[in-house]
Structures
1.
Amino acid sequence: MLGPNGSGETTTLRCISGVLLPDEGSIRINGISVVHEPVLAKQQLGYLPEFPQPLPYLTVWEHLELIARLRNLPPSWRQRAEELVARLNLTEWRDSLGNTLPKGVREKTLLACALLPEPSLVLLDEPIVAIDPIGQQVVKAMLKEWRERGHGIVISTHILAFAEELADRIVVIDRGEKIAEGTPEALRERVHVGTDASLEQVFVKLLQSG
Amino acid sequence: MTALLWAEWKQLMRTLRSWRGILNLVVVFVGAPLLGLGLTLFISKAASAPQQSIARVFVTLLLVLLTSIPLGASPHILAGVLPEWAFAQPIPARKAMVFTWLIESGTFVLVLAALLSPVVFYAALKVSLASASTVTAVFILNAVLGFALLSQELTGWKTDLALVGKLWRTWAKVLFLGVIVLLLLDVGVGILWRLDFIDWREFARLLETPAGMVVTLPVLPAYHAVKSVLSGFEATAILSVAFLALFTAIMVWEALKVAAPFCQAVFLLSERQQWLTKIGAWEVVTQKDVPKPVKSKSGFGSRETSLLWLYWLNWKRSGLWSGDLTMLFLIFAVASGVIVFAVKSTLSDFYEKLACQPSLPSPSCSHVEPFLPPFLALLNGSKASL
């Protein structure tokens, strides 16, 4: 999901995650309405908000434990949590409190929380903004694996290279309205640029014409 | 919900263990020790003073105010407990709402207990089980009633008895405001001109007349409960608690009719935002900057003064000043006033006793006491005739 600042990407993700109620229309995750059956719908998703705020006095590991408790995960969650901690390079922060974590580590912690229950849909709001380049590579690799395993991912980002690398489908919104949707190739065709044009060029053209 | 309580408990314990947490507590509750000290002096004096002393009545009113605070529960206290990612977890709205309420009410009970327990211990009050139970019952009933009224308020007063609930809520707010204004006026006048602006004994007597009891109905159970702690247990306390219990039960029954939308309102950011905006509290809750454009200003002076300037602008524009000033005024005015009164009344007692000693005969000792009851009776009589 791409769009200029304040165009409504975060609001859309908040509506999908059930944090905000939509004024109109309907949102269904695996056929379950977020508005009418919020608890069931939320069981299907993991959410990383734009401003990752861990609880200040819980450690990274305790955040994962909290998610496991909230979702009644089977005991095998520990093994999965250990894998996520190791993969996201959170081992040295495992026992650090939320209020002592650098921003990138906060993002990774809440990303691990979002992925821990293995939801069928993950919502990520600007997920790699504060993460270092090595961490970005790890996150990208994890998300690709996630996608290949058949899970859905909705990402809002301003890093167009990231979108281009990961996205099967791109939605461009502006001032709360969807102005374009399709594969990167389809969007290139729509604005009549060559196949070698970058997504940045496509994005700018779409906004100028839209 | 147990998972959230587990997390909150861990957080609380760690806050209390960290230096920063302790420092915050000291800074936030800087006035509490002062207030506690003042109340201690007051109640120590009130416990040994004759019935209906000014100190005793003053303390009773202060405690009534504290015990009734849950009645004034506002949407502010129900917001901002959980971070955004927690709202996206599959937690039923009702459980989350109860959790939020428990956390906030629990915090309040802890603060109240921390404030009052030293007073009870230092004053060596002999609190009977009946009196303590009455105060606790009133506190809990007020909390439940406050919550029931809040649910009706947030869902637009749509139930059958909404008008009664609305009236009660407004009535309680007016009484709160009235008591605070009276206390502040009395404290202010006492400090500035060393005068007793209000005769609290007379005030208490007026409260206990039938008209006074009707006017102060929402805080009446709290008044009689606190009075039973200081002056001995009476049947009035039981009657007023029974009345409060009945009224609370009716309002809870009404609130259950709007339970679902209320839970949703507390749980969903969008609903909360809508209602809090409606009552003009959203900015306060989120401490958001006011969106209207602000005229830019230039800095001045050296690096140090520029930092001061920066702090000043931030404080002024963030809206923190209103809360800061109100809290500072309330804490320091009430606390210092209570201490001044306590010292003053202790000293005047001391001089009175000194003057009444056999070696120092004074006509005031024998003349003032017989003079008071007829004079008060005359006052009451003239008020009644009016």
2.
Amino acid sequence: MNASTFDGDMGTRAPVAAPHPTHKLRLLLKREFWEHKGGFFWAPLVAGGISLLLTIMAWIVAEVVARKAVADGQINIDNDIKINGLDLGVITGKMSPDDFHQLGQGIDFSLLTFAMWPMVVLAFVVFFYCLGALYDDRKDRSVLFWKSLPISDRDTVVSKALGALVVAPVIAIAAAMITILGFMAFISLVVLIHGGNPYTLLWGPGNPLSVLAHLLASIPVYAVWALPTVGWLMLCSAWARSKPFLWAVMIPVFAGIFVSWFDVMDLFNLESGWFWGHIVGRSLLSAVPGGWLTLLDVDHVQNPEQLGSLLDVGRSYAVFLKPEMWIGAVAGVAMLVGAIRLRRWRDDN
Amino acid sequence: MNATVTSSATSVVSARGLRKAYKNKVALADTAFEIPAGRIVGLIGPNGAGKTTALKAMLGLIPFEGQMRVLGRDPRTQRDELMNDVCFIADVAVLPRWIRVREAIEFVAGVHPRFDRMRCERFLANTQLKPDMRVRELSKGMIVQLHLALVMAIDAKLLVLDEPTLGLDILYRKQFYQRLLEDYFDENKTILITTHQVEEIEHILTDVMFIRDGKIVLEAPMDAVGERYIEVLVNADRAEEARNLRPIDERALPFGKTVMLFDGVEPGRLTHLGETRTPGLADLFVATMKGTYA
């Protein structure tokens, strides 16, 4: 009837190891990466890869068409018809410094376009990651396993927020960099095939490194800018007993409709558009990279020539001087604090 | 105040006046209990009696009213420190489905100061689990093996098991408790188990608590249970005489014999009525919980 018969085993048992130091935050971030490897890692990489693949296919088609045209004698470069199609060496020789400058901006612009695809994917990944972050483990009850370990709810929520604000963007930007370099390598090859010098034609006038630096520099901007959306979605994620997506989207949208309908904003001498932009928009769409550009005066950027201003890191950082940036960040942090509290006491298992 | 301090020094868990009401049911109603250190305690009760609620309160997972000390700490306000010394298996199959065996080990090793990786790997060496397997590819029994290996490699002072073997076949169930006794339990550890499979754990328990409608109705060491309760196989001709001693339960057997369960009746007064023996926990449970679902 009692366990005294088992006392004999105790002497033979191996001694238990002494307490060892822990690396909680590192492991928590690692856990997010393990769980969301598909969204964090593969999705931006695949998006970049697909855009590259499409470009290569488009080039092959263009090449075939061009060769046909050349063969048919429809294209005529300086009366100097080449058997192998376009000769970039000839073109390069005729370009003025100003042309090179424009060419460089064009190259930078196409590089940014290539960086865009992993970034678009990032927006979706972060949105749905946050919605599920504090909900999925409650749904499959694995929250009980996580809560059986000595990790505070604060650490859990903070690690998940960092996953969305830092880990995901860093990886997406790495994917964007790989895409950009892949693209540069590819067009270098194209230029070579056509007898041009990739250095004078691409790597000289273009600024792939400054595009990369700009992307890297935008990570802190993104982390602060995305806070209200991350905070709101994680709050919903910690709170909802079911359908976090519906709650997260419907509450701000219906609030917006309500506000527009009754012209509530008139009370503050503001238009309904203000509410849609600053409340609904910031709580749902701030996970889109580059969203902060709407706060800056970038309307004048309509062609590649003015792109230089976009690539100026200082301009992105100017957003840190805007009160909207910080008010949103404070609201985001407050919602994360709410999420921590909900995480601590939510009992639905 | 003094009493609380001294009791929390020797008790692993000490609870007084617990109250927890859900929307349409009171789960804990003035519940009080003490769990001494170095014991294996079974918390046994029918469905909906408040077992899981009591465990959740102990683990700081839910808010509640009343006094509760676990290892001298209040689980509501000091949960983060408490979890260094307390571990629990809430249920089978709560390990996240996406995690790989090796990731689970790496994670627990990285966040738990008392986790012994070598121990965990030694436990897993005797199973079919491979480091690259994901939990979603494992059978329920294998998931429990993994969970148990993770938990047993943690040198916790209190281990709480809530229906840890639900849905497992008999081989895994036996192995589970065997492991727990042989490789884990010692005088510095306390284990609290709830389960419906009373027969399977009664031989490993040192103490038992019965809970009914949010109240602890029996709290005793197993030895004391053996002394207090006596089961007698009474012949039909002695039945009236036996009934005068007020058995708490009786059930008829074929051929006119009746099994009667006595609470606190002196053994000397029972021996002449028929064959006596110590009742099984299951019979005791059924007798104590009579009318629960009525």
